[in-house]
């Protein structure tokens, strides 16, 4: 099989990796390491023996299942931070059979997540330490397992039952809810039933924030300008729809202190808004906090900007159109709807395609530029600007009412 390898292609990839590494010296941002890892993955892929693929997959599956179980039963926590522990002692600490812990532990040793000392003692490595002390990296890996691995492991049965079409048609049924045996509930209702899983999921997902900027793409100073010189002093200026903890609003208001927070509104579901109020962040204190259901309507009419970040990718096109339709109905002629999301790249890259399939497991969807244009158009909005981040696939998609003259 090695004769099928395109050595020139491999050499080109290797020199691209070399260039990336040279350019990255002195920088420590996640984006550069992600780029280097992606290049290294392309080299691995170009030199991969197709005959070994099934074996490689089986190793990945074994590794992920072993990690997930050790995390669930707190086995990583019970391994001393310094020094080692026998499988027998570890099994006693987590209340399990020694043979079970040994077999699962051996999987982790074989891929370098744990280190074997002597015949039957294990100790931590840097790769196992990310599963300690609620480290967000480990929690994110477990969250992906719970959503994607569990959901997609049932794809053949799910698509066999519901037909070969994109998931996301129904408000509840998705590969995730099907796999968890509760097709009448949506992902959030199911996740909320397990307090630990939900809490860990939120911490893990917060990590993705680090890689997804909300600043540096769109110039929000126009809002401050309107606050100063605009004719209507009562008009709401900025509505953060599906705000979660309000972190985007905090960043935007901190960078643009001339935008008066009292003319901003944060909107989300009841428990989320309760949490925002409890957090009582000083930047957001003067802002209005409002419970909404973005499928039912937009109570703030004629705001200057409606900002909706990382919400549409949770939903199929039809549901996203409904959300945007309510924003469009609330818009004045000069209102802007700003959609902040990742744009799918062409040709596709695995980190994005994997995320897209993960979103399909819960009924959502990642989109490229033309998919956003289509969803916006269906909702009576027109895209008037795509403001891309220079380092990540994130963009702000600026829309106005299709019948507006204010381009
Ligand atoms: C992935 S989070 C994005 C949060 C935030 N905008 C960000 O950029 O991180 C999606 C948000 O949509 C909210 N959401 C979900 N369904 C909603 C609904 N029907 N009405 C209003 N908000 C909703 C969730 O509570 C959550 O805060």
Automatic annotation (TrEMBL):
S-adenosyl-L-methionine listed as a keyword: yes
Domain O-methyltransferase C-terminal: 175-381
Signal peptide, first to last residue: none
GO biological process: methylation
Catalytic residue positions: 313 (proton acceptor)
Keywords from the UniProt entry: Methyltransferase, S-adenosyl-L-methionine, Transferase
Classification via InterPro entries: COMT-like (IPR016461), COMT_C (IPR001077), SAM-dependent_MTases_sf (IPR029063), WH-like_DNA-bd_sf (IPR036388), WH_DNA-bd_sf (IPR036390)
Recorded GO MF terms: O-methyltransferase activity
Protein name: O-methyltransferase
């Amino acid at each position: 099989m090695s004769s099928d390898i395109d050595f020139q292609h491999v050499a080109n990839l290797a020199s691209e990796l070399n260039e990336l590494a040279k350019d990255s010296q002195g920088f420590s941002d996640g984006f550069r390491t992600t780029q280097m890892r992606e290049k290294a993955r392309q080299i691995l892929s170009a030199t991969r023996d197709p005959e070994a693929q099934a074996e490689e997959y089986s190793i990945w599956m074994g590794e992920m299942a072993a990690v997930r179980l050790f995390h669930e039963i707190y086995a990583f926590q019970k391994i001393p931070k310094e020094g080692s522990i026998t499988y027998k002692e570890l099994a006693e600490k987590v209340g399990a059979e020694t043979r079970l812990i040994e077999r699962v532990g051996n999987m982790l040793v074989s891929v370098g997540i744990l280190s074997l000392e002597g015949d039957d003692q294990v100790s931590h490595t840097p790769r196992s330490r990310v599963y300690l002390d609620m480290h967000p990296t480990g929690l994110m890996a477990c969250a992906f397992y719970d959503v994607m691995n569990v959901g997609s492991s049932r794809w053949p049965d799910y698509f066999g039952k519901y037909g070969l079409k994109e998931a996301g048609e129904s408000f509840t049924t998705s590969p995730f809810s099907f796999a968890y045996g509760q097709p009448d509930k949506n992902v959030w209702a199911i996740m909320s039933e397990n307090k630990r899983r939900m809490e860990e999921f939120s911490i893990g997902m917060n990590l993705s924030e680090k890689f997804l900027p909300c600043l540096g793409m769109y110039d929000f100073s126009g809002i401050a300008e309107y606050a100063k010189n605009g004719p209507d002093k009562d008009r709401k200026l900025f509505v953060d729809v599906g705000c979660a903890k309000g972190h985007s609003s905090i960043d935007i208001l901190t960078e643009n202190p001339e935008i008066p927070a009292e003319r901003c509104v944060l909107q989300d579901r009841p428990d989320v808004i309760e949490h925002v109020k409890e957090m009582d962040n000083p930047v957001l204190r003067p802002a209005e906090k409002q419970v909404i259901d973005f499928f039912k309507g937009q109570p703030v009419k004629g705001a200057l900007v409606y900002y909706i970040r990382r919400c549409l990718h949770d939903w199929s096109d039809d549901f996203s159109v409904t959300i945007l339709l309510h924003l469009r109905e609330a818009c004045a002629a000069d209102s802007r709807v700003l959609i902040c999301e990742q744009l799918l790249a062409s040709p596709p890259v695995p980190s994005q395609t994997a995320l897209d399939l993960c979103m399909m497991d819960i009924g959502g969807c990642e989109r490229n530029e033309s998919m956003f244009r289509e969803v916006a158009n269906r909702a009576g909005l027109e895209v008037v600007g795509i403001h891309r981040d220079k380092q990540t696939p994130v963009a702000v998609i600026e829309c106005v009412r299709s019948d507006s003259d204010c381009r």
